[in-house]
Every structure is written in C-alpha cells, then in structure tokens.
Write a structure and sequence with these properties.
309 residues; alpha/beta; Rossmann fold; seven-stranded parallel beta sheet; five-stranded parallel beta sheet; 36% helix
Length: 309
C-alpha cells in the first residue's frame, strides 16, 4: 500500500481522508526530530510538510521510494526543488489556499500600527489615561500601500486595502509594464527604490532567493518615510533584522509587523527584542482555521490524484 508520512500539523479531516486510501503515518513531532524523520521516510511514497521540515538531498537519499512532496503552504525555500526534480519527485504547493489569510493579516496589522491605540491596554489597566498620546493615530483611508511582489497574495492584499480606501502601488519585475493585471487591479507600477520612498505601508510578497535576501536593508529602510509601516509575511531573510530594529529604536520608521524571521524560531537575544512599535508573530500569517482546512484539503486532493487507487 502507498505510504504517506506527514511531518507537520495538518487538518485532521484531511488526514483521515487520506487514511481511507493510504497507509498514513501522521507524526507532526517529526519536524523537530531529524533522525526520526530520516528513519520514517525510508519506505515513504509521499511526504507532506509545512515550512519547517527541510526536504533536501539527505531526505531524498533516505527515501528511495519517494515520489511526491506536498507542501502545506506556498513557499518552497525549505524544499530543494531542483534535487526533487532530479530524483523524479513531484512537488505540490498549496498555491492560493492561504492567500486570504495572509492578506487579512497584512491589512489588520497595518491598521493596528497606523492607529497605535490598540497597544495601550496595559497602561489603561494600570490606571493611566494616555488619551493625548493615543490621539495621534492615523486612519487607513487615503494612505498608500506598497507591495513588493504582485502575485496572488499581493493582489488579494491590494483588493482588501482598496476596499478601505487605500491607494495601492506595487513592484514586480516578473510582471511586464503592459500586463493587464496592473490596470485590472487599479494598481500603479513602480520601480523598487521609488516604491520604498512613496508609501505609508510597505508589504513584502516575494520568495527568498539570492536576489531577495537582504532586500530590505539599512539603505532601503532609510528611503522610507519616518512614520511608515513595514509588514513582512514573506520570508525572514528578505529583511535585515538588525537594521530594522535600529530604524525603529531611532525613530526612523513608524512601526513594523514581522511574521517570519531569518532564524525560526526567533532566537533569544535577537536585536528585535524590545524594539518599539513592533508586532512579532510565529509564522502564522497564512494559518487560520479556515485556511488550514483549505490548504490541507487541497494537498490531500493532489496526493490522492497522484496515487490513484
């Protein structure tokens, strides 16, 4: 019987749907047990992962029967796609299934940081009344959102932001200037450095590659307005975390929300610790109850289609 190993959490109804046709080894603890993972994939025909399980040459060598990898998400930087292709292993990301969750995260955290008032609960509970300080928040309507990357998630984010009255600009070197997507979405096209200087909120939607690593560095942060907001739900290595922390502490940036980090989990003693106007979340921008159901169901369907009964 076809054997499937699942090394990270997956929506249980989707797991059970696979059990109806396959021998399923659902072991989400394997993400933190490399030796156990290598042992369990020895006779696996398929492997399903999220973003923390590294599917590299070592895993492929340990899994001679492996024919398919399902990714419960869209980023593929934890999967050696070239090595999988060379080994004849198909890779299936859950493209589009978590776009709405990420877009809502971007817009919601941008609104929180622009308004500022939602970060005063401890002061109010302690008997303080920071009304004057908290009255300097900004409205979302009329602000300019910049998107670095204008794929499916970027376009969904643009749509939500426009519904709140935001003007949207974007940079995407893969999308030609005359592509219909620009006019259809009502989004202005900008070059990268110009985008950094023009926006009130900047949101990142790019994969981690050699060309995007360190894309948001000290020089580009310095181009941003001193009260601008940065949101990163893409990949941690895209942002220079030390430079970002310095910009926040020195009042050169209005705020930031990071859902992804260069090292995950974020290490104790990170320069980000204690930086002002900073929201940190543990890589859950694309994970909600609803999106987890959609992502899990989609990957289960693709695995079933790959291994027909």
């Amino acid at each position: 019987m076809t054997r499937i190993v699942i090394s990270e959490f997956m929506d249980l109804p989707a797991v059970e749907s696979l059990r109806g046709a396959f021998d399923v080894d659902y072991a989400p603890e394997l993400v933190d047990d490399r030796a156990g993972l290598l042992a369990r994939v020895a006779d696996a025909d398929a492997l399903i992962v999220r973003n923390r399980t590294r599917v590299d040459r070592e895993v492929l060598a340990a899994a001679p029967r492996l024919r398919a990898v399902g990714r419960l998400g869209v980023g593929l930087d934890n999967i050696d796609v070239a090595a999988c292709e060379a080994a004849g292993v198909a890779v299936y990301p859950a493209t589009g299934a978590n776009s709405l969750a990420v877009a809502e995260y971007v817009v919601a955290t941008a609104m929180v940081l622009l308004r500022g008032a939602y970060l005063s609960s401890n002061d109010v509970a302690a008997g303080q009344w920071p009304r004057t300080r908290m009255s300097q928040g900004r409205e979302t309507a009329g602000k300019t959102l910049g998107l670095v990357g204008f794929g499916g998630i970027g376009r969904m984010t643009a749509k939500l932001a426009q519904g709140l009255g935001m003007r949207v600009l974007a940079y995407d070197p893969m999308l030609p200037p005359d592509a219909p997507a620009w006019s259809e979405a009502g989004v202005g096209r900008r070059e990268l450095d110009a985008l950094f200087g023009e926006v009130d909120v900047l949101s990142l939607h790019v994969p981690l590659t050699e060309s995007t690593r360190g894309l948001v560095d000290a020089a580009r942060l310095a181009r941003m307005k001193p009260d601008a907001i940065l949101v990163n739900t893409a990949r941690g290595g895209v942002v220079d975390e030390t430079a970002l922390a310095a910009a926040l502490r020195n009042g050169k940036l209005g705020g930031a929300a990071l859902d992804v980090f260069d090292d995950e989990p974020l290490r104790a003693g990170s320069p980000l610790a204690g930086a002002p106007n900073l929201i940190l979340t543990p890589h859950i921008g694309g994970v909600t109850r609803e999106s987890n159901e959609r992502v899990s169901s989609l990957i289960a369907e693709r695995i079933r289609a790959f291994f027909p009964a």
